Structure formats: structure tokens, C-alpha cells
Amino acid sequence: MTPMPKSLYRMLGDHFVWLAATTSLWLGCNRPTTAPPSPKAIPSVTIRKSNLSRISADIRAMQSEGAIGRNNTFFTEAEDCGIDFTYLNGATGKALMVESTGGGCAWLDYDRDGWPDLYLGQGGDPTALVEEARPIDRLYRNLGNGSFQNVTVWTGIEEHGYGQGVSASDYDNDGFEDLFVTNVGFNVLFHNQGDGSFQAVELTVPAAGRLWSTSTAWGDIDRDGDLDLYVARYCDYDPYHPKPCFRPNGAPGTCHPKEVEPYPDEFYLNNGDGTFRPVAQERGLFGPGNRALGVVIADFDNDDWPDIFVANDTTMNFLFINRKDGFFDEQAQFLGCAVNVNGSPQANMGIAVGDYDGNGFLDLYVTHFHAEWNTLYQNLGPNGFHDVTAQALLTTPTMDKLGFGTVMADFDLNGFQELIVANGHIDDVTDKGIEYEMKAQLFAYNGKTWDDTGSNAGPFFDRKTIGRAIATADYDLDGDLDVAYVSQNSKTTLLRNDSPRRGHWLKLRFVCKTSNRFGIGTRVTLHCGSSKWMQELAGGTSYCCSHEPVLVFGLGDLSGPCRLEIRWPSGKTSSMDDIQVDQPMTLFEQ
Is 80 exceeded by the pLDDT of residue 393? Predict the structure, then answer.
């Protein structure tokens, strides 16, 4: 059956170009497998309203009832799983800037069969005269048995851009996740047709410069029920006519960011009718000299409205505080997360978000360049952010690394957060004794400081690659988070979480009626015994990727029953009592 054509867009740097699609690009019926099963039946959940209480500012509850346990996170490389993909940066010795940043991915359940699927962006030759000369992105369908199938051609996706990042979301609230792909040049929005296929408008229109977009974040900044989009941009750079830059020995070298002109980010407001409009300048979402690589949309000041944090390379970060009227004030300097403890801007790249210290405010971990340190900003609420990297014992372990993607999550479910970091240089400077390929890192919070636990986390952490994106999903549905790890010029790795003595857990996903469909921006406080945890389903995070839209709580030895307090993206609140642990749950907004 031919699906009804839908109006779609192509995002060309500054603007969405609207076209009514006259021909449906669908190949779903030609898939050599059975049609996607209908969504699994989900038991009804009774939710009653109450006020969402703030959680306390210390971690004493984490030290009670046996919740503390030694970290034992362990990842197994899922070999022969069917994901045979290598991101090619196209380097030929010219040291083009764009070769250093690509390698994005996104988890999404595109066919709604309950199993997370994986989209991987591709690069190729950044100077190809014809886009079709580049290899295409790929979409891998999760078959539910530990293996994946390349279904790209059957889904109608044919994306030849020089890829940087990917994000998944349901921008039109039809229950199917869509895809947004950032490139050096034109960005693309793929609409999920709901029949196993995607549709995009292929349109060639002259653009003002060849814009270089990186990470993106979806979030409902005006709380009107649909998702808006922040697009991070790096600089105005044309790989066909690049600025020549050189190393001290005269060989071509990657330009320093300050040798090229920055280009303002863009924010696209969802009009609610399938169209968007760029509003960054009019809404206050801009700042001086930005070269954005990472972005996250989340509520950092606990006023129930989403704010936006942007990681800028070699310039000050932005923290746009939501004024609740559709406009923002940039307050990163005032709130203490623009620069490091020495007052210096850093080469900011990827972003991890979580409430690691249990004080009820979302903290930030930002990855940086070699010979800098990745910075941990502790969020002290009204007292702003503090660079506590040294006190947390996180300075020295990252000084000889160059970090990109990063995620803060409780992988072994012991009640404490871990940090996973993708590392890899942007230049081959091994002649200076600096590694090009680098090991990934894993740090575990012990209640006071962070321990480097990568050496015990599996053989992958002994392997060196040029790491870029890290995205999480529970792809095997066993209750803990697994990892897609994208590297340049080597095979993408699927890390299955096989942590042995893991704790009790609760996995939450959301279906919203008033808010955006998948509940991006939902905040949950979980009470179990005398302990409590807070998480928010943030938009963006990490680097050039997006995660499965779920919240996974680790409870350590606590076996429940537990209580949930939910603040939905619309601002509504609700609660649930007598929640049993060790189960996935779908919560419905009433």
C-alpha cells in the first residue's frame, strides 16, 4: 500500500525550505523480512497528581541501606552483531578542518517494535564534486536476537552529505521518531512515514557559504507541546577552498579554531504545523565568537523551564537561561560555567549531564583538548556552577587525552554515576610523542571522588581508536544501558553492558498527551527507602548523537517498593507509589 505523501523539509543552513512532496520515497514493502510488528501492548498505569518535591543537597541517603557498592561496570564488544560500519573522514594529507570532527550516531526505534535501532552518519571525501560519490549513511534494524540488519535502502534513506552528527526525535508528535542529520553543507530532516520508511525533500538551492553544523538538541523551550531544535555550528569553512594552515615543520596542519571565522548557531522554533522558523537572533540565543561542538537542553536552575548549554571550542561556553516568555538570557559567566577554574576558556567539545552529587541540580562534564583537562562543573543551584575537577580527582587522568563524546549514567546500577569518554586526536602528531589514536575512559563516582575504572571494564578500554560519538540505549532489553562507540576510520563498536554484580534498577519511558510525544524534558525523582535520585530526559548531550529516550535508575541493594515524582515537560506534575523494582515501565501523561 502506497503511503500518503507528506510535506517535508530540507534544512539548508539558515532556513527550512518547504515543499509538498509529490512522490513518496518508500521502499518499506520491499524489505526482505516480515513487516514490523505492532507496538507492544503496555499495561495501564494509574498516576495521581501531587507536588514535585526537591531532593536534598547531600548524599547521605546514598550511604545508607547498603546502596554503596564497588563499581563493576563491564562492557563486552558485540562482535558479529551485523553492524559492519566504519566512519571515513576522507583524509588525504590536506589536513582539512572538517576531517577531524565527524562521526555521529542516533538510537531510535524507527519501526516501533520495542527494540532500539541504530543510525550511523557517514563522511567520505569532503571535497567530492558530486555528493553521490560519497558513501551513504546507514540505518541498522535491531532484530531482537542480539543482531542487526542494514535496512538503509529499504527505508528510503539516501544521504550522501559529509556527515557530522545525527539526532532522533518525534518533531510532529505522530508517535514515530524522525531523524535530523548535520553535515558540512546542507543538513537534512528525514520524516518517519510510519510504514518503515523515511522521506526527505532533495532540493538543490544555492546557499550563502557552506555551513558546518555539528551537534543538535531537541527540546520544548516554550512548553507548547512540540519539539524545537538547536543546531550547533562550528565555523564558516569551505573544504573546496580551505584556508591553508601549516605545522611548524611546514607540513599541512589542521587550522586552529581561531584562524577561521565563527558562524552563529541557529534555533528552529516548531510552529506546530510541520514547519519551523529560525529565531536564534530574536530570542537571544547567540553570543560572541561561538564555535559550537556540543549542546544540551535541560532545566539547570530548577524553575521547570528548559535552558540551553552550549560547549564552544576555545571560546567561552554559553548558558542560555529561559525567561519563560520565549526569550533567553546568556549567563554562563555569571553562573560559573563559561570558563575553567583559572578563568580560561577551553576547547570545549562533548557534554555529559547528570546529578552525580544528589543535590537535585544537574551537573555538567565537558570534554576538552589534549594538555587540558575535562572539566566537571558542579551545579550548586543559586550559587552557580563550580569547577571541581581537581577536588574530584579528574584533572590528571584526562590531561594527555583529547575527548569528544561523553555520557554520565549508572551503568552497573549500583546507585552511583559513571562517566564514559571517547578520546582521539584531530591530527597525527605522533612525531611529538602525542597519541593520535587513544583509549576510551571510564570513571566511577565513589561518593566523594571519581575513580578511573577503565582497566577493569573490558578489553575495549585497552584498544586505541580515534573516538568521537558515544550514545546509549538498552538495545538488548535487559535493563542496563549499552553503548554505541563511533570512531573515525575504524569499525564502530557496540558495547554490550555485561556488568556482573549489578544492582536493582528501574527503566522508564514516557508517552505524553499534552507534552511532546516521547517526553523530552521530563524530570523524575525516585525515592526508595531513605535514598532518592533525580534524572531528566535532556535533549542533546554527548557529541553529535542522540540516545534512546529512556531514564535508567540504578538502586544498588535497595529492593523497593519505591515512589516516583514526575514533572512533565508541560509543567504538570504527578506521582506514583508502591513501584516494584527490576522492571521497565512506560508512564503516561494524563
Answer: yes
